[in-house]
């Protein structure tokens, strides 16, 4: 029942702007964002994935090279990210802490894992002209690219970067600066999504193949456990705080019969509970896969003794 009550509150927050007296005066069309700095990369990735997938399937057959469920996951995640960045939720998120938290959770724990699961690097490579693919492959193997990638794609590094982005951008001075400066706000969104995409990519496709696959799932469980803990602590701090961290973030809180502090507390609950549930659900998925994966063992041949 608490989960249903929370869902009702969220639906009410998203529906109320149509009737709230202060927001009803705003042109509905102006609530949609069209920031080219955010949309251009999104469209480039989407178009490249589509072209690469079509080329792969023409070459290897439908569902080969990139599976149908990966394509479905990519486009679902892509649509969620696009809506989070362009829909009225984005506009409202600049004026209501709760909406901002919903937007960031859609980016980090819904859109990012879906797109990471799709493993877009293959289709992205195939989107290039055939003459350029060998050069692109060599470029990715250059030490100046491969070594930094080896560092940041380590599970500890990816988990740490994801945590740093979450905590740093919720520091009141930096958060307030993001609300005042458009370029910093773009950087906030990009860093949230990029570190989340790296984090989930490492969990799904990071180091560990063959007999190490079970080890990779075990590491993923540990990374998610750490992430649940630190994000839960941050959510609890926001929820239990008796002062407003970022005064300008709750500009429209009164339109929803909330005080700025109540708006912040509701945002903290969203980070503490639903976000924690999603991370925990992912950890249970990896735990299930870890349990059902039988580790490869060398078996000695049976010795038969003559009677």
Would you give an account of this structure?
It contains 14 helices and no strands. With 307 residues, it is mainly alpha-helical. Residues 1-20 form the signal peptide.
Structure summary:
The protein has helices at residues 2-15, 36-60, 68-86, 88-93, 97-117, 121-126, 133-141, 143-152, 155-169, 172-180, 182-205, 213-240, 260-272, 274-292. The chain has 307 residues and is an all-alpha fold. Helix 5 (97-117) packs parallel to helix 11 (182-205) and helix 9 (155-169) packs antiparallel against helix 11.
Could you outline the blueprint of secondary structure elements for this entry?
Layout: H1 2-15, H2 36-60, H3 68-86, H4 88-93, H5 97-117, H6 121-126, H7 133-141, H8 143-152, H9 155-169, H10 172-180, H11 182-205, H12 213-240, H13 260-272, H14 274-292
Helix pairs in contact: 2-3, 3-5, 5-11, 5-13, 9-11, 9-12, 10-11, 12-13, 12-14
Subcellular location: Cell membrane
Protein name: Cytochrome c oxidase assembly protein
Keywords: Cell membrane, Membrane, Signal, Transmembrane, Transmembrane helix
């Amino acid at each position: 029942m608490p989960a249903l009550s929370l869902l009702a509150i969220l639906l009410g927050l998203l529906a109320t702007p149509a009737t709230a007296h202060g927001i009803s005066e705003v042109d509905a069309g102006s609530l949609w964002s069209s920031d080219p700095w955010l949309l251009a990369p999104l469209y480039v990735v989407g178009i490249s994935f589509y072209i690469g997938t079509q080329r792969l399937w023409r070459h290897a057959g439908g569902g080969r090279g990139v599976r149908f469920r990966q394509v479905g996951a990519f486009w679902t995640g892509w649509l969620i990210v696009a809506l989070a960045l362009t829909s009225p939720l984005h506009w409202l998120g600049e004026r209501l802490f709760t909406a901002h938290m919903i937007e960031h959770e859609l980016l980090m724990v819904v859109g990012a894992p879906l797109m990471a699961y799709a493993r877009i690097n293959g289709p992205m490579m195939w989107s290039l002209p055939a003459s350029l693919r060998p050069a692109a492959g060599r470029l990715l193997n250059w030490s100046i690219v491969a070594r930094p990638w080896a560092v940041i794609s380590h599970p500890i590094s990816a988990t740490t970067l994801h945590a740093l982005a979450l905590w740093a951008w919720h520091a009141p001075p930096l958060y307030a600066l993001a609300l005042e400066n458009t370029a910093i706000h773009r950087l906030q969104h990009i860093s949230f999504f990029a570190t989340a995409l790296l984090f989930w990519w490492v969990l799904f496709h990071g180091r560990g193949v063959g007999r190490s696959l079970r080890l990779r799932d075990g590491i993923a469980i540990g990374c998610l456990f750490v992430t649940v803990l630190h994000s839960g602590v941050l959510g609890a701090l926001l929820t239990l705080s008796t002062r407003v961290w970022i005064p300008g973030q709750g500009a429209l809180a009164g339109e929803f019969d909330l005080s700025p502090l109540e708006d912040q507390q509701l945002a903290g609950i969203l980070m503490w509970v639903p976000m924690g549930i999603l991370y925990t659900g992912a950890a249970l998925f990896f735990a299930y896969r870890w349990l059902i994966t039988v580790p490869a063992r060398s078996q000695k041949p049976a010795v038969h003794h003559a009677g």
